């Protein structure tokens, strides 16, 4: 049910939610879970750890749990799994009470070879063992293949920063790509069967990549992709494909690409003086948020979950962490959802 507040009250609420670390934000209601195809329950909101070093990641995990998160997102190539593992331990939380997602690198990226399918498979197995060791866990709740393969013309690895690997479809057009996708997937499937992983999925996989896995004994349960206001609600048809194939889509970078949020989504920083002639960005999310007594960030997250998509967000700020969980007590109107669906922002990097 939408919670309508007056403009003045909403402004005060926004200041409290977005600008003060010690605001008495009430503990948010518990986060709903999505049920994966195998029945595993995955909390809809995850606290991400990309770009954090070990010590920041350790503190971020503890802060996320303190705020009420039950789901942490990390990856082999974040180089912070040791810190994440320490944070999990320091939190004192029972293993069954939190959900941990990690990712193994795709073939040809992040030190996994694309020279041969066999080599890629072996190195993926090795990375998975390292994931478990670094996290200091006996099992991981969800493991994703981080990227589609990025083989060069001669089968050697290319940097994942090469745009050909990030382009929506090209990761799967190389002749070896489907073989590599199947090889990596078999590693995850085996670990899943050995109960080292409770659920398996992919990330940054376009539908062509996913089609390489048609007929697999276990099909991906999750596809984690970039999705935020400004991209439209079904970029590249990701959402339609996922719904058709019972894959749970998960959004990353909900505040814009780059890991630092975008002013086009997040209102300009608290305390920042805005010259009168400067375009005040974040206008759409901010003005919609004003109607509900919510911040621009909360509207950006609510738009994603309203489309039945789970989301990995990131914050090192305890007030932001709490606010990011506090999105389940209001409903965006159809008109507001449509405005957010239609928003188009220039992409950044
Ligand atoms: N699979 C993949 O390839 C992939 C790629 C990218 C990301 N991811 C995952 O997704 C996670 C989230 O994406 P992201 O790291 O790009 O970050 P993000 O959540 O889109 O944005 C983080 C930025 O937003 C700010 N922020 C967070 N909550 C806020 C709030 N309530 N109000 C105002 N500002 C707020 C943060 O600043 P403060 O710290 O000051 O709050 C930070 O600067 C990653 O950490 C990672 O786990 C996966």
UniProtKB/TrEMBL annotation:
Protein name: NADP-dependent oxidoreductase domain-containing protein
Similarity comment text for this entry: Belongs to the aldo/keto reductase family.
Superkingdom field: Eukaryota
Residue stretches making up the NADP-dependent oxidoreductase domain: 48-343
Signal peptide residues on this chain, from the entry's feature table: 1-20
Pfam families named among the record's database cross-references: Aldo_ket_red (PF00248)
Matches recorded under PROSITE patterns: PROKAR_LIPOPROTEIN
InterPro entries according to UniProt: AKR (IPR020471), NAD(P)_OxRdtase_dom_sf (IPR036812), NADP_OxRdtase_dom (IPR023210)
Keyword flag Ribosomal protein: no
Record key words, sorted: NADP, Oxidoreductase, Signal
């Amino acid at each position: 049910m939408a919670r309508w507040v007056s403009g003045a009250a909403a402004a005060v609420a926004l200041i409290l939610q977005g600008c003060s670390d010690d605001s008495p934000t009430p503990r948010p209601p518990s986060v709903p879970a999505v049920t994966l195809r195998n029945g595993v329950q995955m909390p809809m909101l995850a606290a991400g750890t990309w770009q954090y070093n070990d010590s920041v990641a350790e503190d971020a995990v503890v802060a996320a749990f303190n705020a009420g998160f039950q789901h942490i997102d990390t990856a082999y190539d974040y180089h912070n799994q040791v810190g994440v593992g320490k944070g999990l331990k320091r939190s004192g939380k029972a293993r069954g009470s939190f959900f941990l997602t990690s990712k193994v690198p795709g073939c040809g990226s992040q030190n996994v070879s694309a020279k041969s399918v066999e080599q890629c498979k072996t190195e993926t197995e090795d990375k998975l063992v390292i994931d478990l060791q670094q996290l200091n866990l006996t099992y991981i709740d969800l493991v994703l293949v981080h990227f589609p393969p990025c083989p060069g013309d001669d089968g050697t690895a290319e940097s994942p920063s090469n745009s050909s690997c990030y382009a929506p479809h090209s990761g799967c057009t190389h002749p070896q790509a489907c073989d590599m996708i199947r090889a990596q997937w078999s590693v995850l499937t085996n670990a899943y069967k050995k109960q080292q992983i409770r659920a398996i999925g992919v990330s940054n996989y376009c539908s062509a990549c996913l089609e390489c896995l048609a007929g697999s004994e276990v099909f991906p349960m999750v596809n984690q992709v970039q999705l935020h206001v400004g991209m439209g609600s079904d970029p590249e048809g990701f959402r339609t494909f996922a719904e058709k194939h019972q894959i749970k889509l998960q959004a990353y970078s909900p505040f814009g690409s780059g890991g630092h949020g975008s002013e086009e989504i997040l209102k300009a920083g608290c305390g920042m003086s805005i010259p009168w002639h400067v375009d005040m960005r974040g206008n759409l999310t901010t003005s919609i948020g004003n109607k509900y007594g919510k911040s621009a960030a909360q509207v950006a997250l609510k738009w994603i979950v309203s489309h039945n998509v789970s989301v990995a967000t990131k914050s090192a700020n305890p007030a932001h962490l709490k606010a990011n969980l506090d999105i389940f007590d209001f409903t965006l109107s159809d008109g507001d959802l449509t405005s957010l669906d239609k928003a188009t922002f220039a992409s950044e990097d």
